[in-house]
Amino acid sequence: MDACVSRALSWPMGSLRKGFLMFSLLLIIQAISAPFSLAAEAANEINKADTAWILVSTAMVMFMTPGLAIFYAGMARKKNVLSTMMQSFFILCLISIQWILVGYTLSFGPDVGGFIGSLDFLGLENVGVEAKGTIPHLLFMMFQGMFAAITVALITGAFAERIKFSAVVVFSLLWATLIYDPLCHWVWGGGWLQKLGVLDFAGGIVVHISCGLSALVAAIYVGKRKGFPRELMAPHNLTLTVIGMGILWFGWFGFNAGSALASDGAAVIAFVTTNTAAAAGTLTWAFIEWGHRGKPTMLGAMSGAVAGLGSITPASGFVTPGSAIIIGIAGGALCYMAVTMLKPRLGYDDTLDVFGIHGIAGTWGTIATGIFATIGAQGLIAGNPAQLGKQAIGALVTVLLSVVGTYVLLKIVDLVIGIRVTTEQEIEGLDLSQHEESGYTM
After folding, report:
1. pLDDT exceeding 90 applies to what percent of the chain?
2. For the residues 204-217, what does the mean pLDDT come to?
3. What's the pTM value of the predicted model, to 2 decimals?
4. Residue in 227, 224, 232 with CA at minimum distance from that of residue 349
5. Are residues 12 and 116 in the same domain?
6. Which member of 237, 313, 352, 407 has the greatest number of CB atoms within 10 A?
7. By residue range, what is the domain housing residue 222?
């Protein structure tokens, strides 16, 4: 490395840019291959430091759902601001109860055939403050429940501004129980994908692929908003969206680093890679947009941040900061293309680009984990190409479950209570037609 630096510094000024690029590449390669070691910790009793960290992380992940409500509301039209917020906020409460009653046991109950958890934890039976790893079992339950809540809430961005609130409630409850819970068990609860060796540190498969592909199906099934794409449907208040993005970024540290389930080196690595990939995704989207459209936008920068965060989520505890840069850059670029090129070409109306960002980022991040994992697991660059195949299986299975399952659930809800509001209600706005209130009095 020292010889390369000396050679670069000795080049003439005309070669300085080339030398800088080569030097940067060497730094990234070194960061990827740098050895990391995580000391094993005893897991036979409750650790107060771990418990304190996961308590904080649980609150941070919970805070992400109100943050998502603000993030989404700012991008909606002003006549739909409260209805958009209500969907996320209501789902937080709905899934909190569902998780305690049945969701947790289906996800993390003792394994039944690799496909579902048993009913041993129904209504939190046999779940108390006894140790699960180094934290109380009840705390583990609560932490995982916040993941379930935000995953369901993320889907609502795809059909915002045109769906009946009653349909949101019924669909969300069914989707959490019949799609999220089994998938969570497969990957994290001792199910067949976990036994296969599929890696998902914090939810690339369980959260982002599942919600992203389900969002695409929902957007197509519900249909386009009236006037889309002829009418301008710009965000009504990007200031709200920036505030929501700040909350999401903050909460993501609990989301990813908290998934270590301990206050240890793995949490620190996830913490650093989370911020690194988010920054890389933001810069990538902004620079591409700057070159493509002439000016970088705040909406684009925030979209890039979510792209970077979604991309690093499955890999966050398995990769180095150098790898996180690459994952974030690629995530920002892929999501930009999905939103600005793929979406217009296919013509679907994913209102807030849930598929274009979360679905694409989650898929890329899941595959990237199989390439760049070097900490606690080995991927392609560490000499284990088989891991890449396992990641591909995990992604493909999740796509199939999400697409087929979501379509069936939407069809059932539509037949029973109907999904879409009337044309008059949509024109009036969902704030008034669904909730009889308005976000603005002027």
Report:
1. 89
2. 98
3. 0.91
4. 224
5. no
6. 313
7. 48-435
